[in-house]
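ugh ok fine here u go
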Amino acid sequence: MGWFWDSKPAGDTYSKLDPSLKDFLDKESSSQNATTQPVPRSGEVPRSAEGASTTYRSQIGLPTSPNTPSDQQAQPSVPAESLFQDGRYAHLWATYRPQSSVEAAGKTDQDRLADVVDSYRDRKAAIGRAALENCVMEQMAEKECFSTGGWKKMMGMCRKENKDFNRCYTMQSRFLKALGYLSNTYATADEEERIQMHADRLYHEMLAREKAIEQAEKEGQAAPTFAPLMQQDHVVQALGPESAYARARQRAKDEMLPTNLSAYPPEKQDEIRDRLKGLNDWQKEVEMQLIAAESRAQLEYAEKVKATMEEERAHRADRRERGKETAGDTIKRYWGWKQ
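structure:
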C-alpha cells in the first residue's frame, strides 16, 4: 500500500481502490458534508466541502472543489455582535435584539419627551465645557492672580482677570450657540471641534477689532470700518455645507423668514433694543446675529417638543379607539388636552 501515500499518483487511483474502502470513503464524505464545518485552527489541515482532507483527497484522485454558492447561502447568519461570523451559535442569536431597539420599545411617551428635554440640557452643558476650554488662558490668569498676584490685586478680588474670564465665557458660549452647537444634537466629534475652533477665532477677532477702535480713539483718528464679523459664506466654508449653521440659514432662506426686529413679539423687541443701547455699529451687528442664532436654536428645540407631543397625542387617541385608555389618558382628556 505504499503507492497510496505517493505524492504523485499515476492514473485514476480512486477506481483502483478496494470496493470496501470506496464505500467507507463515500460514507464518511456524506456524513461530514451534513454537519457544519468549524473554522480551522492554525496548524490544522484544511478540509473541502466533501469533508475529507484536501491533501489526502488529491492524492487518491477525489475532486477538491470549493463550497458551492448554495452551501454558502445555507450557512446560518449571525448578527454583527457575534464573535463567530461563520455561523456558529446561530441558534443562540436567533432571538437577539439590539440594546437600542429594546430601550426604544420600552419607552413611554413621557420618556421620549424627557429624552428631548435631557438632550437639550446636555447640549447646554456641552456648550459650557467647550467655552471653558476656549477660555482656559483667561481662567489660568485669574487663578494665578489669586495665587501669586500680590495683596493689592487680591484686595481688589482680581477684578480685571475675573472680568476678562467672565466676558470670554459669556461670548464664547454665545458664539457657540450662533454657530449651531446647541442645535447640532447628533454632531460628530469633528463637527463639534470645527464649531469650537471657529467660535474661538471669532472671539479673538472681536477683541482685535475692539483694540483697534480703542487705539484709534486714543490717537484722535476715525474709527476703522470692518466687514461683518460673521459673514455667512465664511462661516459655511469653515463649518461645512452640511453643518447646523448652513442648514439653518438655508431653511431661513427657503421659508423667507424675517431677520429683523419685526420677527419678534413687541416685548422681545423692547428687550433687544435695550441690549443694543451703547453699542457701535459692528457690535450691534454681532449682537443681532447672536440673538437670531439663539432664536433659531430655541425654535428647533420647540419643534422637537411639539413633534413629540403630537406623537403622544396620537398614541392616546389610538388607545382610546381600541378601548385601552389609561387613567392618565382620561385625566388629560377631562383637563381639555387635545386628542
